[in-house]
Design a protein that fits this description.
- The structure is a single chain.
- The chain is an all-alpha fold.
- The chain has helices at about 5-35, 40-60, 65-75, 80-105, 110-115, 125-135, 140-155, 160-180, 185-210, 225-255, 265-300, 300-340, 345-360.
- The two termini are about 30 Å apart.
């Protein structure tokens, strides 16, 4: 992909990701208005964080980057070989994710203890978190299947559907808490329903775009093929790199579970602000450059891959460093404007700002 192609891809990714972040802000503002930094908010954020951690490990963090170069190689193969290999990739992921989802639902009590052991001191909080985690764990299946389809689409330089799909999750969660809070006994149950609906809609969105590139998202029994073996070989180093970030999240959540009510929520809202520049800038560049680097590596031009990587890194730093300064200098008024209303009070604002300071430096 030429420089203009990369910039065009970044434009598509950046604009759809920005839309995702904007709808994500509306979602978080609605959540803040309904449940703030309360007992119920802490339970929901920990319960939702568990499938999200697995999503980042298994989904777009590992699966998508591993699938892109493999499918890029398949583009030059005869159609029957290409279709057979892609069918094997989809089928293998489908059945493995089903097993992981079943185990996650079964082992929810252990997962909550591992991530938020402090909650065990409050039986009501612990039981609610386990119940919400079980309700939302199937979201992992939907979103990781989206990651598989994302890898296939990105290999064909199609970025719109995968990057737009999080918007559907945000809309579904907003719809859930606004329309169902008065019907269900707790607003967090409405949020959990919105998560499941959003995951399903994200998955369904990818199918028409796969058909546009003449790929049928069908299943078969051939779960092990040369392509799946290549993907699994690349997953291990990806897991190692991603595990570092997830360990930070585990430690944050575990320590917060022993602290006062609302601490998990303070960390959540601060992290949401931080995710805006990371998602719009860094992830967009990284996603756009991957197919190009894969093609250069396949052609044996490692020097070109290195030049592309350095160029993207420089462009990312030009955006990220000023953003850090803005968050440190003006984080409090930003948080106040975005979230302070109804259940999100002055205490919530102050504590969330302290969390944002730490995250910005990190």
């Amino acid at each position: 992909m030429k420089k203009t192609g990369i910039l065009r891809a970044v434009g598509v990714l950046g604009s759809t990701t920005l839309l995702s972040r904007l709808t994500g802000y509306i979602r978080d503002a609605v959540i803040a208005g309904f449940i703030g930094t309360s007992f119920y908010a802490d339970a929901f954020f920990v319960a939702f964080r568990i499938p999200n951690m697995f999503r980042r490990l298994l989904g777009e963090g590992a699966l998508t980057p591993a699938i892109v170069p493999v499918v890029s190689d398949l583009k030059d193969k005869p159609k029957d070989i290409r279709d057979s290999e892609i069918k094997s990739i989809i089928s293998s992921g489908f059945f493995i994710l089903l097993i992981i989802t079943f185990l996650g639902i079964l082992l929810s009590p252990l997962l909550v203890k591992f991530l938020a052991y402090g909650y065990t001191k409050n039986k009501e909080l612990y039981d609610l978190t386990v119940y919400l985690n079980r309700l939302m764990f199937p979201y992992l299946f939907f979103v990781c299947m989206v990651a598989i389809f994302m890898g296939i689409l990105n290999a064909y330089n199609h970025f719109f559907a995968p990057s737009f799909s999080p918007v559907l999750l945000n809309i579904s969660m907003i719809f859930g808490i606004i329309s169902l809070s008065g019907i269900l006994s707790l607003p967090v149950y409405a949020l959990a329903f919105g998560v499941l609906l959003g995951g399903l809609l994200q998955l369904l969105l990818q199918i028409p775009y796969l058909k546009k590139i003449d790929i049928s998202p069908s299943l078969g029994l051939n779960l092990i093929s040369p392509s799946t073996k290549s993907i699994y070989e690349m997953l291990l180093p990806s897991f190692f790199g991603l595990a570092i970030t997830q360990i930070n999240i585990v430690v944050d959540t575990l320590v917060a579970s022993f602290l006062k009510e609302g601490t998990v929520s303070y960390l959540y809202y601060a992290d949401r602000i931080l995710e805006i520049p990371i998602g719009v800038i860094v992830v967009s560049f990284a996603t756009a450059i991957l197919p190009s680097i894969s093609e250069s590596a396949r052609a044996g031009d490692i020097n070109e891959s290195g030049r592309q990587f350095k160029r993207v890194l420089k462009m990312c730093l030009l955006f990220v460093l000023p953003t850090m300064i803005v968050f440190i200098s003006f984080g409090k008024p930003i948080l106040s404007t975005l979230f302070q209303r109804k259940a999100f009070d002055e205490v919530s604002l102050r504590e969330t700002y302290f969390a944002l300071l730490g995250y910005s430096l990190g």
